[in-house]
Amino acid sequence: MDLELTEEQRIFRESIRNFIEKEVAPLVEEAEEKEAFPLGLFRKMGELGYLCVRYPVEMGGGGADKVTECILVEELCRVCAGIAGGILVQSGLATEPLYRFGPQELRERFLYPAIRGEKIGAFALTEPDAGSDAASIRTRAIREGDHYVLQGTKMFITNGPICDFAVVAATVDPSRKAKGISLFVVERGTEGFRVARKLKKVGNRSAETGELIFEECRIPAANLIGGEEGRGFHQIRDTLTSGRITYGARCTGVAQAAYEASLRFARERVQFGRPIIQFQVNRFKLADMAMKIDIMRSYTYRVARLSDMGARVMKEASMVKLFCSETLQQILSQAMQIHGGYGYMMEYPVQRFWRDGRLFTITEGTSEIHHMIIAQELGF
Ligand SMILES: Cc1cc2nc3c(=O)[nH]c(=O)nc-3n(C[C@H](O)[C@H](O)[C@H](O)COP(=O)(O)OP(=O)(O)OC[C@H]3O[C@@H](n4cnc5c(N)ncnc54)[C@H](O)[C@@H]3O)c2cc1C
What we know:
The two termini are 40 Å apart. 49% of the residues lie in helices and 15% in strands. It has three domains: 7-116, Acyl-CoA dehydrogenase/oxidase, N-terminal domain (Butyryl-Coa Dehydrogenase, subunit A, domain 1, Orthogonal Bundle), CATH 1.10.540.10; 121-230, Butyryl-CoA Dehydrogenase, subunit A, domain 2; 234-377, Butyryl-CoA Dehydrogenase, subunit A, domain 3 (Up-down Bundle). By secondary structure, it is α+β, with helices and mostly antiparallel strands. Flavin-adenine dinucleotide binds at residues 89, 123-126, 131-132, 156-158, 201, 204, 209, 359, 362-364, 366, 368-369.
């Protein structure tokens, strides 16, 4: 029994697990094979309030708390981290700045349709020469009367190839570094905005990732998020902090999937006349995995609950992201080892968990960057 959850949260876990088994699991094989996100899922999840579960019901969301969002994300990642990746950009990075900072006109045009699954969003911060050092982005936004003109390239953008709009970070004044950055909404179809290419990836293949180009791309000045220049870096920081908590659940879901596959395999695989689970070394590996998953899940809930209480969780969000993504690597390595040669074959699902989970120490802040944030927050 999970003492950490309320009755409502436990019931939610059951219903979302049923939904995912019925509506998501059957789509995974084709999505991974074709490296294409199953687009119908946006509307299906939107209609049920599952797409952006944390936003208020009045906006079309599920009206749930951060803990509930973590439950949903864990269950989704247990079945497919790639599909979860596309959904998570929609429910977090691409919509959170609009949800938090408005203005209302942009919310009505982009946020509410995104919550309903009618419009797909992307979040474009990273550039070919600016990853961890996000303050050094070069995409320019130059004000011309009632418009901004955007010029630049964005790299590794999840949902980029399928998006109806992108929240784009650009600098209005490169000399001001972080203080010159603002966030803008750019609608697909705007002249000068194009997807240069869809990128082929090692894992998370059902999430579509691309390179975006903005050439003399003219957008209304009203598309500035928050209505004030130079606020972008703060807006990004708040958005990323929330996403890092969810990241704990993302890692927990993939770890749980790897554990379940390993347990099944260890019971079935016979060597030296016995199922390999009867060898102590394998039992210990499985016990170790189960223990680590329990800690990952509890820690994620704890930080999610702190966030629900309105606490400042900059340090804790980095800790949960760093701890869970690094611990996941140990779990995935053990899972592969238990599978022996079969684990290295594409027909066994554990290789997908291994490929998908490898990304998690890299995106939304690498492990090195999270160490830096934690040290800074601790005052050294
Ligand atoms: C599949 C995928 C999806 C993505 N989706 C998105 C998206 O939707 N939107 C978006 O904007 N971005 C996205 N990204 C980009 C992602 O956030 C970046 O890849 C990440 O921030 C790291 O940047 P980088 O790849 O340029 O690595 P770099 O910053 O070049 O880092 C390379 C290495 O150097 C280390 N390093 C860098 N600086 C320091 C330092 N000061 N001290 C110590 N070590 C350091 C890093 O930790 C890393 O190990 C995605 C990336 C991938 C791979």
